[in-house]
Design a protein that fits this description.
217 residues, alpha/beta, Rossmann fold, five-stranded parallel beta sheet, binds flavin mononucleotide
Amino acid sequence: MRILLVSSSPHKEKSHAFLLAKEVLKGFLSSVKIEALHLSDFKIEFCRHCESCHRKIMDCPINDDVCMILEKMLHAEGIIFASPNYINQITASMKALWDRSSHFIHCKRFLGKYVVGVVSSGSGQDKTVLDYIRYYAHTCGAQYTGGISSRAPINKKKAEKAINLGNKLILNIQEKKVFPEQIKVIKGFKEYFKSVIQMRKDDWVEEYQYWLNRGWL
Ligand SMILES: Cc1cc2nc3c(=O)[nH]c(=O)nc-3n(C[C@H](O)[C@H](O)[C@H](O)COP(=O)(O)O)c2cc1C
């Protein structure tokens, strides 16, 4: 089982979001392959809306580290997104990465995956940030195991909660847990994209083919 932690704080190893995410990982058995990335270590440019990745899957003219990170996301069964609250949102680096992943949204590439959100903040406010992580998971097709947040420093109670959330993530993956309410939301997003993909079939050739191959049309 592969778990990918994508952490977007420029404080990297010292980041409270990252430290809290590390608590989430703490209970994992050694058979779980964990990879952690700090977005600050990579070159991440903004999406130019050229739609190249819709015509030819994962094809992007920008020469930076994003495609490599997106491939890692595709290969993980569970993804933990950790971000500090920046003006009640994820950081710009996380958003830039997600903007570059619109193919995942078009083709629901996270179907079968589970996502966890981890947020650090100065005020304790986390709702808009965690809601957005949950939204991103659903629009890409993943179910959301849950989220956790903390102001610095992380206390013992919060650390225990984080470990429980990590255990839940592993169980969800092992049991292929179905959250009926979430599946309804994911199906709604998919239904919407069915019409978009059909409308753009002559242009987004490979994404259209992806849908056809799966019998979704
Ligand atoms: C640009 C910027 C915007 C921020 N906006 C908020 C905010 O809206 N609400 C909040 O509670 N904290 C805000 N903070 C504070 C950080 O979320 C807080 O210091 C957090 O603990 C940093 O986490 P880290 O150690 O993981 O980087 C902001 C910090 C920065 C740099």
